[in-house]
């Protein structure tokens, strides 16, 4: 039996859907801001955004006070508004081009999405992938189990099976992740860029004979275990290909330092920079180039504090460097790894290799663990880290689990964290966290191929910003205000004129305007 409160929510949702369905059905759990509640019949949505004519601009506001992608239209002015703070677009300062934004289809994410009714599942996937949603174009896919699984498994647990004759996908793939990825692709107006990451090789290939803890591949690069591990990647891509799912990239393995330097409680496979370098040069690089020449290799897939050291160790070898396309970074410990020293330095040393964020989540620290419904502080952490990464040559940013339950799982080792969407199976609803809207302010507007350009300030300000010119020559400007004060400002684009605006305290703003 449904509760009276839920019946009221369904009624409100039905009415709102008839009126366009743009409003957040807010619920406050007492953690600083609100979540937006969605069900099988209603969910707030930004809708398909149409570029305004030259001379007008759109702004989208999300704030601690409760705004969620609140849309407004304004007029570009010929003359300065006289604001003390001016942000000037510098279109001739060209930086990196954007690849995209997304999240991970883990076992846990799939379990939570599939726990909803068919209508609510569709709503959730639309929120992420459809034109009326926030238009994710990237999805990270774990190869076999990770901590966000309900049990330990790989695709070939038969000891000594160097020919991988027992290799088979599990029900987590064929009955859960693959059907949802197919639905996501059907909802997206453009091909999704999938990339795969492995947490551990089968135990029989490893020095510690276990999926967890400190252990690496037996032998040396070029040897049987390293060759077989490379072929494991190929078989994974082949099996997913049978379901019409192709992969833009694979990573060299999730957090190689976890299995090399620490006794991790969940799945890990250790690599040093040297063994990763030689495995790419001798094994996975040639194997992937032969079987899937269009699939890219992303090295590292670990915290950015390892840069530029790790990049130098791998990319200084021409045999490995020829197979690598990008460098994946996680956001953990970013506060101890300044972006200019890690990301920008690496870019300037190796400009031909893209930098990309491959994992991030809130609620991972021991003092701030698990789900916090309505946390604006976490939304600001997301928005700040994305902007800092983008302003230091990163081409995209991938969130962790697409959906979790209110506990922050399931997770077989109880390594609970937060997610941008939290599923309440009992009520057949899901909550869009403030972090969902942090992602939206970038993913919805920064099309693949958008190029970052310069922004200059007329005076010092606590506002953070990043500007881009999209392939159609329209401009996107994202503003983050983490201060306690409303900050008025104007934007000057030499191509069109002046935009007058104000950033409320604790808010994220995205501006969009045409130049031609």
Notes on the structure:
The protein has 2 domains: 4-97 and 451-513, Immunoglobulin-like (Sandwich), CATH 2.60.40; 100-443, Glycosidases (TIM Barrel, Alpha-Beta Barrel). 28% of the residues lie in helices and 26% in strands. It has helices at 4-18, 107-114, 118-129, 171-187, 224-241, 256-261, 273-291, 309-315, 318-321, 339-349, 376-390, 434-443; strands at residues 26-28, 34-38, 56-63, 70-75, 86-97, 100-104, 138-143, 193-198, 249-251, 296-303, 326-330, 354-359, 364-365, 368-369, 394-401, 421-424, 429-432, 451-457, 464-469, 475-481, 487-493, 497-503, 507-513. The chain has a 9-stranded mixed sheet. Strands 6-7-8-9-10-11-12-15 form an 8-stranded parallel beta barrel, surrounded by 4 helices. The longest helix is centred in the middle third of the chain and has 19 residues, at 273-291. Mean pLDDT is 95; it is low at 1-21.
What are the salient characteristics of this protein?
TIM Barrel, 23 strands, disordered N terminus, alpha/beta, 8-stranded parallel beta barrel, 28% helix, Immunoglobulin-like
Give the overall shape, derived from the CA principal axes.
Answer: globular
Spatial order of the strands forming the largest sheet: 4-3-23-20-19-18-5-21-22
Q: What is the arithmetic mean of pLDDT?
A: 95
What is the C-level CATH assignment of the largest domain?
Answer: Alpha Beta
Sheet with most strands: 9 strands, mixed
Helix content: 25-40%
What structural class is derived from the secondary structure elements? alpha/beta
Cα(first) to Cα(last) distance is 56 Å
Instruction: Please report the number of helical segments.
Output: 12
CATH architecture of the largest domain: Alpha-Beta Barrel
Domains (count): 2
The number of distinct β-strands equals 23
